[in-house]
Write a structure and sequence with these properties.
alpha/beta
């Protein structure tokens, strides 16, 4: 890291988040402390607008709509809104004078790509899994998080075995796109803070090894969260 007057001038920081956990204060603190030139979020413009006006984006019955409903329901159990950490990142970027960058691919493109890549068998399994999320309980989500944190490689290997197209399209291809975006942003603007789903952090770190990124994992943010929410859980972005 190159530093001028205590402010990073050229470095990529990866911050892993969960979309139903109240991380607003932690995200704000990390960005204010680093005061980067750019704050990148794992969103496209349409998804940011959907987070800002969720009532306007609740029509239709799609995979994204069901996933969004599940995240809203779980987030409400912890007194927050799904995606509040992304809104906090976007708002804090403006407050510290940083550019806001959309790191992710267009969600409509990703969904279309996913549906084309999946076999009928995988589509059926995935649809069943998504619908099962409607009945997801806090204890189950916490258990899945613990599995992920204890052996991330095994967790993702199991995902690839059960849902190969999902792993390839929703994780690997998006990681490649976001890593390229981060390289370009760092080269053009200098320091970048990237707020991404926890499930993307290790993949991005591997793709950016030569850039020596700083990494803040979800468990790190949880230890600095509001004490009353310390036992809350998360939804891994896949």
């Amino acid at each position: 890291m190159i530093s001028i007057d205590g402010v990073a001038s050229r470095v990529i920081t990866l911050i892993g988040v969960g979309h139903v956990f109240d991380l607003r204060a932690a995200i704000r603190n990390e960005i204010e402390e680093r005061r980067p030139a750019v704050v990148g979020v794992e969103l496209d413009p349409a998804r940011l607008e959907a987070l800002r006006a969720p009532e306007a984006s609740q029509s239709g019955f799609t995979i994204y709509a069901v996933l969004a409903y599940v995240q809203r329901r779980i987030a409400s159990e912890y007194g927050t809104r799904a995606g509040a950490e992304m809104l906090a990142a976007a708002d804090t970027a403006r407050e510290v004078g940083a550019r806001l960058a959309f790191l992710d691919l267009d969600s409509r493109f990703v969904l279309g790509r996913l549906l084309r890549a999946m076999t009928w068998r995988e589509k059926a399994k995935f649809a069943f899994s998504v619908l099962g999320g409607l009945f997801l309980r806090r204890s189950t989500v916490e258990s899945e998080l613990q599995k992920f944190e204890s052996d991330e490689a095994a967790f993702l290997e199991a995902l690839a075995k059960d849902f190969p197209a999902v792993k390839r399209v929703l994780i690997d291809e998006r990681n490649a796109h976001m890593a390229g975006a981060l390289r370009s942003l760092e080269a053009e603007h200098g320091s970048v803070v990237a707020v991404v789903g926890e499930g993307h952090v290790e993949g991005l770190r591997a793709l950016l090894t030569d850039r020596f990124p700083d990494v803040i994992r979800l468990r790190d943010l949880r230890t600095t969260a509001v004490p009353g929410n310390a036992s809350s859980t998360v939804s891994l972005d896949r």
